[in-house]
Amino acid sequence: MVRLDDLVRKMSEHGWRVTDQRKTLANIFLETQSYLTPREVYERMGRHYNGLSYDTVYRNLRSMAEIGLIEQATLDDVVKFKLHCAEHHHHHHLICVKCEKTFSFVFCPLDHAPPMPDQFTALSHKFEVYGLCKDCNQEPAS
Amino acid sequence: MVRLDDLVRKMSEHGWRVTDQRKTLANIFLETQSYLTPREVYERMGRHYNGLSYDTVYRNLRSMAEIGLIEQATLDDVVKFKLHCAEHHHHHHLICVKCEKTFSFVFCPLDHAPPMPDQFTALSHKFEVYGLCKDCNQEPAS
DNA sequence: TTTGGTGCAAAAAGTTTGCATCCTT
DNA sequence: AAGGATGCAAACTTTTTGCACCAAA
User: Fold this and answer.
1) What percent of chain B has pLDDT over 70?
2) Which residue range forms the structural domain that includes residue B65?
3) Which H or E run contains B73?
4) Which residues of B touch A61 (CB under 8 A)?
5) Could you tell me which residues are beta bridge partners of residue A102?
6) Chain B: nearest CA to A50, how far in angstroms?
7) B64 in the same domain as B18
8) Are A79 and A122 found together in one domain?
9) Which positions 3-42 of B are in contact with A (Cβ < 8 Å)?
10) Nucleotide at minimal C1' distance from the B53 CA
11) Which chain A residues contact residue B123 at CB under 8 A?
12) Are residues A64 and A98 both part of a single domain?
């Protein structure tokens, strides 16, 4: 499990200053397993600060995504972020379309795919499975 | 290969009126194999019209994506569209990161994946391979 | 003390909406 | 003729930028 220390250390390693805002930001992602929009993050941050500015949150989200502390995705045409998972092996994700929690899926399509056609050189890939997690599956249809 | 008639017919089937704007829009995608931003589409449309409004293009892009005439994707944080491919079998795409052309890849990860963990129910999925196509591979590095 | 980070403000870019008019059906 | 589509304008949201001041190292 990822801890605050891990995130703070990574910030330092990148020569970042560890500000209160960044620590709070990190904590928010630590206690949230699902995706959050910048707006949602800002609102949660606001509970801890008075004069918080949105662009600081925004800048930090971008930066944190850049160094791999968090992951950015576009769900329903909306940009969202979640904590970068601790899983060490290469893996992909199951994403619940209802609660937006994510689950590791240690399986990579490229290990099972045929050779690339058209003399295409693969550099990276994205594989995501959308569906309902155990909890959301059991709830009555909304 | 998809033709203008096919697209026009599909519009009619959905009770749409076939306006010049929509025909031009369709033609633009027919002659472009790569992804286009709404802005790029608008500019190309502008070559055919004088008093063209951006929101008409925008509205039509959204609508055309809704009925599956074109496909929407988010590349580099930017929303883009391309023609929905004619391939009948379920398939995925190789996307060239340089020219953004796409190539069919008739292979589905879910056919080779182990059972979903965590009692997760898969509803849909996304699998895209990013890389360099034959042509871009041969060009000198930019 | 130094320099990067933050807050504030404002601009830029992207997306959506209302409405009178036009044009496909 | 009727109603959906367009053009125009404006609002709204999201993302980006400049700069003075503050604070982490």
Assistant:
1) 98
2) 4-83
3) strand B70-75
4) none
5) A95
6) 31
7) yes
8) no
9) none
10) D7
11) 97, 130-132
12) no
List, for residues B59-108, the tens digit of each pLDDT value.
Answer: 999 999 999 999 999 998 899 999 998 777 889 999 999 999 999 999 99
Directed axis angle between helix B54-66 and helix B20-30, to 10°? Answer: 70
Predicted model pTM:
0.89
Under-70 pLDDT residues of chain A? 140-142
Count of beta carbons in the 10 Å neighbourhood of residue A36? 20
Q: Which amino acid is at A101?
A: K
SS3 B125: strand
Tokens of A104: 């590791």
Indicate the length of chain B as a whole number. Answer: 142
CB of A124 within 8 Å of a chain B CB? The answer is yes
Contact assignment for A117 to B94 by CB distance below 8 Å: yes
Contact between the CB of A52 and strand C at under 7 Å: yes
Residue pair A33/A101 in contact by the 8 Å Cβ criterion: yes
A126 to B125: CB separation less than 8 angstroms, yes or no = no
Pairwise CA distance, residues A49 & A17, whole Å = 18
Residue with tokens 């050779």: A115
pLDDT at residue A49 in the model: 86
Residue B141, SS3 per DSSP: coil
Burial of B103 (0-12, 13-18, 19+ CB in 10 A): buried
**Does residue B119 belong to the interface with chain A, where contact is any CB pair within 8 Å?**
yes
CATH of the domain at B112: 3.30.1490.190
Query: d(Cα A49, Cα A27) in Å, to the nearest integer?
Result: 14
- Is the shortest CB-to-strand distance from A90 to strand C under 7 Å? no
Same domain, B97 and B59: no
- Mutation for B interface: A66, A77, A96, A129, most B CBs within 10 A: A129
